[in-house]
Amino acid sequence: MNKKTDGEAAREELKPDTRLGVGGRDPFAHHGYVNPPVYHASTLLYPTAEDFVARRGRYHYGRRGTPTSEALETAIRDIEGPACAGVALLPSGLAAISVALLSVLRSGQHVLVTDSCYGPTRTFCDTALARYGVATTYYDPLIGGRIAELMQPNTRAAFVEAPGSLSFEMQDIPAIAEAVHGKGALVLMDNTWASPLYFRALEKGVDLSIQSGTKYIGGHSDVMLGTVSANSKTWAGLHELVGTMGLCVGPDDMFLGLRGLRTMGVRLAQHHKSGLAVARWLEARPEVLRVLHPALESDPGHAIWKRDFTGACGLFSVVFKPVAEKAVYAFLNALTLYGIGASWGGYESLAIPFNCKSVRTATTWAPGGPAVRLHIGLEDVSDLIADLERGFAAMAAVK
Ligand SMILES: Cc1ncc(COP(=O)(O)O)c(C=O)c1O
User: Fold this and answer.
1) Which pLDDT score is estimated for 8?
2) CB 196, CB 230: distance < 8 Å
3) Average pLDDT, stretch 192-200?
4) Is the CB of 392 under 6 A from ligand 1?
5) I need a surface site. Which of 165, 194, 236, 351 has the fewest CB within 10 A?
6) Ligand 1 centre and the CA of 6: distance in Å?
7) Is 93 in the pocket of ligand 1 (CB under 6 A)?
8) What is the pLDDT of residue 11?
9) Please, what is the average pLDDT of the chain?
10) Is 118 an active-site residue?
């Protein structure tokens, strides 16, 4: 908040974009400076031996929290809404996923994971979780409430991601949550695509909501960060695990996260608008079989997206009519404004080829042609479309 007199009560009523601007700020605790200082800290000194022994004071040690970590946690908590009991900061999105899973699962238990999850989530389940005696069953992302049929007596959690990584299937999260909660288990979600700005996961039945802060929170492709937002059922376990494992984020990375968060609302609105414009243009191209983007009316997940989400980010996929692999590579290599590289959520556009076939175990990936994932950045849409036209010309030139 900007004034000494502003109270907590007023904050609840603020709109999300306003919360992004005020969350986690307390200027008059820092001489009036708008932004909180970046504390580079390990040791914290106590005035006396008695204070040290009694651990008196708000902070105790750099790893256990500083005003910098508290500012970012509070800001994220503010945008998650009142259902959020606490936020843990992790050094990457993948660390946020693995720590969230570890915080609820014990040896001998079982977890249900969507077949459309981010690839490394699956690797974590198949390796580390399996070694600790946790069994994973992958399920069809379109399963909805029928997930109840896959639940075993030892099923502790279901992991959802909507839309799916690369393939963009929409999951009916309220229906899944109702079925999973009905059997006494928890719901974890990778909510990186929509973020709490466009999908209020904790209010739709999710117990632990995960974001790769590397994407739109950072927003500039210059930081690795992960966040897990917990409700009152899951916060104590998450907080304890993060503390006992000694996990923390470097102060400059937290600062970049906090700085990015302030403009996330306007950036996401532009990614949404530009992404849809490019998606609609692609849909009308003769080379294109399908565009996988839940905000398009033609998308099979559109009704769920419209019911549960309030926006879309700049990430979606396109399936071409069958062409040779070298034609797809010619398309990608001809693009000058789209970088070829992993991750997304920065201000810049990206394009990568992909094929989910080898990683699916519960469903079959057969989209009908080769696929490319696009991230639509903040460049002018007409330039981005002109670049794609260049790509299609290069594709057509391949014999
Ligand atoms: C949907 C999704 N979740 C999580 C991650 C992992 O995030 P990070 O790269 O910060 O570990 C990614 C990364 O691309 C992702 O696409």
Assistant:
1) 54
2) no
3) 98
4) no
5) 236
6) 36
7) yes
8) 64
9) 96
10) yes
- Token duo for residue 246: 């000694």
User: What are 366-385's pLDDT values in tens digits?
Assistant: 999 999 999 999 999 999 99
Around Cβ 385, how many Cβ atoms within 10 Å? 14
Distance 211 CA to ligand 1 centre (A): 8
Instruction: Determine if the pTM surpasses 0.70.
Output: yes
What residues pair up with 351 in beta bridges, in sequence order?
Answer: 374
- Return the structure tokens found at 233: 């059922």
3-48, pLDDT tens digit by residue? 665 455 456 689 999 999 999 999 999 999 999 999 999 999 999 9
The question of whether 63 is a catalytic residue gets the answer: yes
138 catalytically annotated: no
343 lines ligand 1 (CB under 6 A): yes
| CA–CA dist 58, 145 (Å, integer) | 44
- The residue type at 65: G
Cβ-contact 104, 208 below 8 angstroms: yes
Closest CA to 188 of 133, 128, 230, 227: 230
Going through the chain in order, the beta strands assigned E by DSSP cover 86-90, 110-114, 135-139, 155-161, 186-190, 208-212, 226-230, 288-292, 315-320, 350-354, 371-375
For the chain, the distance separating the N- and C-terminal CA atoms, rounded to the nearest angstrom, is: 61
* Residue with the two structure tokens 């102060």: 251
**pLDDT band per the 50, 70, 90 thresholds, residue 399:** confident
At 292, the amino acid letter reads: L
In short, whether 100's Cβ falls inside 6 Å of ligand 1 is no
Sign of CA dihedral 372, 334, 220, 309: negative
Give the rounded percent of residues in the chain with a pLDDT score beyond 90.
96
Give the strands of the sheet with 350-354, arranged side by side: 288-292, 315-320, 371-375, 350-354
**C-alpha R_g of the chain:** 22
